[in-house]
Every structure is written in C-alpha cells, then in structure tokens.
Amino acid sequence: MRGVVMHAPGDVRTEDRPDPTIEEPTDAVIRLAATCICGSDLWPYRGVEKVQDSAMGHEYIGVVEEVGAEVRTVKPGDFVVGSFWASDNTCVICRAGFQSRCVNAIPMGAIGTQAQLARIPLADGTLVATPGTPPSDLIPSLMAASDVLGTGWFGATAAQAGPGKTTVVVGDGAVGLMAVLAARELGAERIIAMSRNPQRQELARYFGATDILSQRGDEGVAAVKELTDGVGAHSVVEAVGTQESMLQAIHSTRSGGHMGFVGVTYEVALPGMELFFAEINMLGGPAPVRRFLPDLIQRIWDREIDPGRVFDLTLPLEEAAEGYRAMDERRAVKVLLTP
Ligand SMILES: [Zn+2]
Questions:
Q1: Cofactor(s) for this protein (predicted)?
Q2: Concatenated DSSP letters for 151-198?
C-alpha cells in the first residue's frame, strides 16, 4: 500500500509501506475512505518533537476489510469512524467516558493512518459503524468527527458550554472552530471567537460565533471582560496550547466558571498562584472522542451539522507533502487526503 512517512522534520514522502494484517484477534483492517493532516503533525514537522522515519496520521474513516476472530461489533463492508486512541471501551476509565486514557489505550499515531489501509486495534471498542454507506458529500464531516470535531466537542463539554452562558474560544485552528460549532449545538447563548485571520473569522461565524475578538493575551482578556460585565465568561475553550493562550484562557474564565483545554500544552508552566486565585474548574487533555462518536455521527448523518467545512484543502495522498507545507505555512486550516 501507499502511506505517508516523515523521515525527518520537513521531510514528508508518500511511499510504499507493508500492507497491515490482523495481528491480534481483536484487530480490524480498514480501507481508508479519507484521512487528514492534524495540527499536531506539525510538531514533528517543525522539529519541536523528535521524528525519524515515522509513519504518520491518526485520523481515519473507511470500510472494514477484515476482522480478527474476536471482533463482534463490526464486520467486513461496514463503514466506520474511529478516533486517535484505540480503546477497549469496557475498562473503568472508558466506562467513565475517558476512552483516551483507557487502561489499554493504543495511540493510532503509532500505526499511521495517512495510508490506504490501516490496522485498528481493539476494533470493538474503537470503531463506530455509520448507519450505512455515506454519500460522498458526508465524507469530510465524518472525517472531522475522527478528531477535530470530537476534540472541539470535548473542549466545549469540559467548559460546560450551554444555554444562557457565554463561551469564549481561544484559538482559530480547526479544533477551535469545531469548539465554536460544539458550543452552538450545546446551546450557548453567546460565542466569542478569538481570531485575527479574516478567513478563519468568517468560518467561525459560519459555525456559530456571535462575536469575534482579534486581541491576544492580556488585551484579549480585557476585551472579553468588557463583553461580560467585567467578570469573564462562564465557559472558555483553550485550543492552542501555548503559555500565552493558556493564561489568556484562565484569565478569561469567571470565578466558578469552567475551562476546557484541548491544545497540546508543549512547555507550558502555569504559575500556582494564578491557578489558586483564578478559582475555576479546569478539565483538559487528549479528547475522549470515542465518547461522542455515536452522537456526532448521527448529527452528521441527519445533516444537523456540517463540520466538514473545516477542510479547506483536499489533496490526493500522493501529494501529502504539499498538504503539510500548506498547513505549516497556514495557507490551509485543515487538509483532507484522499487515498
Ligand atoms: Zn478502556
């Protein structure tokens, strides 16, 4: 099969990789209908995270080709969506809704789903079948459910976005935009998107933002307070993961409010006294997308939501290198790859 390999920072190639096989009786092998490039793939691309000859990709949707002897809930021919952590969906952590921290979790990034085929461990726990074969125009939205939509949804849920509340979203990348959509679906009254990029501002409005603020850092906090009677928002989603954006999110949350943080926090060190006196509820981490998948798939199937709009560039798998360049240079929000 063909698959994407990152040989070193900035060196991405689509090349021949061995076809996956059933290794465990709980495995499935799927043929991908689509895959995509994640903002987190840019960390190794930029040399922030070590990389050498790594198969890339952790987002996937497709058709089951083959299943192991113990797989019960999906069968060859099913169209399936999974998330970036394979999980058993039966352990105590999974049953509490935190499948991304499953005691048996396996990171799909170690398998590399930017490929024509992929082995999916713990298939019964990991994969969710769609009601049927999706029409082609639903492919981007189902693809979004695999990571960015599920992650934005977790952020908005962790921030307890809901009726009568104001939600702030810090970060206008794909996850931030999906958090805007999630806040809208969860019924938030006012949704403030922090963005200074005109195209992303437009997308944020499309997904449900009622206000756009272009300020950052302390100025961003002051602008949020101006819109919230000086006390900050009930719900804040952090979708960047830098020191500045984390502090901006904490300071934008009113005391007693909720902050969900889903940006990968590279080298963030939060001062204890800021946390102490903020007096807010914080929940974050790698999103347990699996918890939300059945609901998200149904909303997409019923055409209640259109998260696929977040993909602004589609390329064949063979041109993955250009997709990485486009995201690195911020020419694209999110790149869909067709195998
Ligand atoms: Zn588990």
A1: Zn(2+)
A2: HHHHHHHHTT--BT-EEEEE--SHHHHHHHHHHHHTTBSEEEEE---H
